[in-house]
Design goal:
It is a single chain. With 335 residues, this protein is of the alpha+beta class. The protein has one domain: RutC-like (60s Ribosomal Protein L30, Chain: A, 2-Layer Sandwich). It has 5 helices and 18 strands. The protein is globular, with a radius of gyration of 18 Å.
Length: 335
Amino acid sequence: MPSRSAMDPVMPQGREMRDHAPSTRPAPRVGYPTGTAGPSSRTLVRLRFDTTPSPGDARILHVPLPPLGDAPAEVWEVEGEVSHGIQDDVRWSCGGGWLFAAIEVHEADHGGPEETAAHAYGQLSRFVENSDTGHVQRIWNYLGDINQGTSDEERYKRFCTGRIRGMGTVFSQGFPAATAIGHHGDPGLLQVYLLATDAAGTRVENPRQVSAWRYPRQYGVTPPSFARATLLPDDDVLAISGTAAVVGHASAHAGDIGAQLEETARNLDALLAAANLPAGFDGNAPLKAYVRHPGHADIVRAFAAQRWPDAPMLVLHGDICREELLVEIDGWRYR
């Protein structure tokens, strides 16, 4: 991939990710098509939700989260021809001003979750830093046994420490929106993928919640490093982080899937309002729900059908980063 001629200005964490007029790169269009057709010349990535290995085509990534119900792919299309390849451990594709990059690493090669996360983020950071698309907008993290361990030894907390160790200057301009979910595939596998472009987006925080990087000490040595959402550079879509029943910094409604869904919906509404987007989720708002217990899938689908009847939704089996949380929702909200 071509290199940038100069580094972007480094901004301290906690500031807005951009301070300029909108750019001219339409966001990727995300959809859930059925069928088994392969990627087109404008496909940035085609995500399949199963535990089989990803093929050699970097535009196809298998995500180890089994679907609970229908299993369409998640496809990102851009306005431009896409090139793709594999460099060291990083799978990449780029086109239309956008970069998709992914890495899969195993703890058997690097140690525990902290060392593995540091390696994965170090590789991705260096790759993005040397590209023409050096502004990370959105990132996803999937690791096994996410809630295993107690206190500071919980695997998610150790992952958070490793993640911040591996982040380079590419992330110092402000944390992007992110999701971290526990998968049920090979427990030693860490999969991380991201979306980046050549201009900064705008971080959006939820006024109902403490910003994740300001969580108190009880949530680990290193607080989680993500924004609640990112408004992409053309202000045409809000990329929404994994959102659950958290108020302030505390989990709400332990053990009550219905109440957690209602609280999650309130948090999603608050994010839309904070981004000055119209209320609600419609056919231009593909969502993913991560469900801890497969027996709750029908409840989640029924809630979504009543609350957001037109919004496409994938329901996947995954563990939430806090053991008491039963469901998390992320997605995209187009204008």
